[in-house]
């Protein structure tokens, strides 16, 4: 079953409902409208209206995205930045949203995840275990230097 083509009014109403249900960036709304066959002019007009009515605001979206990804998905700054870039959010908007991260909360999340990861990691020696932990945490978007500092600063008690 193919995606139906929308007219301007249908596109406007549907995109308003889409944005009312959850926070979306301009790029996501533009893709929705494009998938439903709206012309470039209609997409632009709809997006202008959505912005004027505060349905779409990339700054608000980026702040919400950063907060949710850190709190719920436990992503690091690097992974969050890449995800926002993939959604075509402007660099200055991304930078402002990332700057809004409470570093105390960020470090608490990072420390808990790092120590949990270290405890779960199996390796022949502690150095290899540290390297595996740093790689694992880097894959989650956390800065390797911060992970290494946590590993160096914390006394890890093994109950194996």
Total helix count? Answer: 9
* SSE arrangement, N to C: HHHHHHHHH
Q: How many individual β-strands?
A: 0
Which parts are unreliable, with pLDDT below 50 for 5 consecutive residues or more? none
Give a verbal description of the structure.
It is a single chain. It is built from 9 helices and no strands. It has 160 residues and is mainly alpha-helical. Helix 1 packs across helix 3 (40-52) and helix 8 packs across helix 9 (144-153). The mean pLDDT is 94.
Please name the defining characteristics of this protein.
single chain; 160 residues; mainly alpha; 9 helices
Walk me through the topology:
Layout: H1 8-21, H2 26-35, H3 40-52, H4 58-71, H5 77-86, H6 91-99, H7 103-120, H8 126-139, H9 144-153
In short:
This protein is mainly α.
């Amino acid at each position: 079953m193919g995606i139906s083509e929308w007219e301007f009014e249908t596109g406007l109403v549907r995109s308003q409902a889409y944005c009312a249900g959850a926070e979306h960036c301009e790029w996501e709304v533009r893709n929705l409208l494009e998938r439903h066959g709206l012309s470039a002019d209609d997409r632009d007009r709809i997006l202008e209206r959505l912005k004027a009515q505060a349905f779409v605001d990339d700054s608000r979206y980026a702040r919400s995205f950063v907060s949710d990804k850190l709190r719920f998905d436990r992503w690091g700054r690097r992974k969050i930045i890449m995800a926002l870039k993939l959604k075509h959010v402007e660099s200055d908007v991304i930078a402002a949203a990332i700057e809004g991260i409470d570093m105390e909360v960020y470090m608490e999340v990072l420390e808990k995840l790092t120590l949990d990861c270290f405890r779960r990691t199996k390796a022949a020696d502690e150095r290899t275990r540290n390297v595996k932990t740093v790689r694992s945490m880097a894959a989650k978007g956390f800065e390797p230097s911060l992970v290494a500092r946590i590993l160096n600063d914390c006394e890890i008690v093994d109950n194996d």
